[in-house]
Amino acid sequence: MSQLAIVYHSAHGHTEFIARQVHAGASEVDGVEAHLVRAEDIARTPEDLVGYDGFVFGSPTYLGGVSGPFKSFMDSTGRLWRTQQLEGKLAAGFTVSSLPSGDKQSTLLSMFVFSMQHGMLWVGNPILPEQHAGVPYDEAANRLGSWSGLMAQAGHAAPADAFVPGDVKTARMFGRHFARSLERVLVPA
User: Fold this and answer.
1) Which residues, other chains included, contact 101 with Cβ-Cβ below 8 Å and sequence gap of 6+?
2) CA dist 23 to 15, 43, 158, Å?
3) In whole angstroms, how far apart are CA 105 and each of 95, 98, 172?
4) What are the CA-CA distances from residue 38 to residues 27, 126, 132 (Å)?
5) Average pLDDT rounded to a whole number, residues 156-174
6) Is the distance from CB of 108 to CB of 95 less than 8 angstroms?
7) Pairwise CA distance, residues 99 & 34, whole Å
8) Mean pLDDT computed over 71-80
9) Which range among 44-53, 151-160, 169-178 shows the weakest confidence by mean pLDDT?
10) How many Cα atoms are found within 13 Å in the side-chain-facing hemisphere of 53?
11) Long-range pairs of 34-37 with CB within 8 A, sequence gap ≥ 24
12) DSSP code of 128?
């Protein structure tokens, strides 16, 4: 059974809500066991990351980058980096901000560079934006048009589950895609 960790930080519940949707999608794939892991928790024991085969990283976008607690998690993995203990594992990322752009690309790039420094293999977002096929914008998968990872938008001060249907659908599809990629790439030792 492949082990997947969805490592996330969520200050107001929005990023956690999307993490749960990614988890739901990944859990639909036979042979993959998905785990929700709070960045603050795994930062205390980063060596636990070695037991996973793949990671989907999630952070809100704050001022054009990952949140402070997520950055602290990233920094906690220094010993693992020096010995490249995460090399060859799959990685992907997602982020949430209150604006359609909100500089979310910078957040995903931060996660990408982090993953590359650890020798991980990045999985992008191949989901075609459905609004081009006539699906109403708020119901369309990948409505924000991100290829490097999953982007979602939550209204400022909105309830944690206040996402348009398209973003929820995209998160589940992204989770399924990552889990299927993990199954295709992972070769038992």
Assistant:
1) none
2) 12, 20, 22
3) 9, 14, 20
4) 18, 26, 35
5) 95
6) yes
7) 29
8) 98
9) 151-160
10) 20
11) 34/4, 34/5, 34/6, 34/175, 34/179, 35/3, 35/4, 35/5, 35/6, 36/6, 36/8, 37/5, 37/6, 37/7, 37/8
12) P
Check if the beta carbon of residue 2 is closer than 8 Å to that of residue 51. Answer: no
| CA dist., res. 175 & res. 34, Å (int) | 9
- pTM of this structure: 0.96
Between vectors from CA 110 to CA 29 and to CA 132, what angle results, nearest 5°? 60
Domain boundaries in the chain?
2-185
Amino acid at 45: T
Provide the CATH number for the domain formed by 2-185 in this structure.
3.40.50.360
Q: Which two tokens stand for residue 138?
A: 């708020």
Report the distance separating Cα 112 and Cα 57, nearest Å.
Answer: 10
| Rounded Cα–Cα distance for residues 26 and 18 (Å) | 12
Helix/strand/coil percentages in the chain, nearest 5: 40, 20, 40
Residue 71: its H or E element: helix 68-75
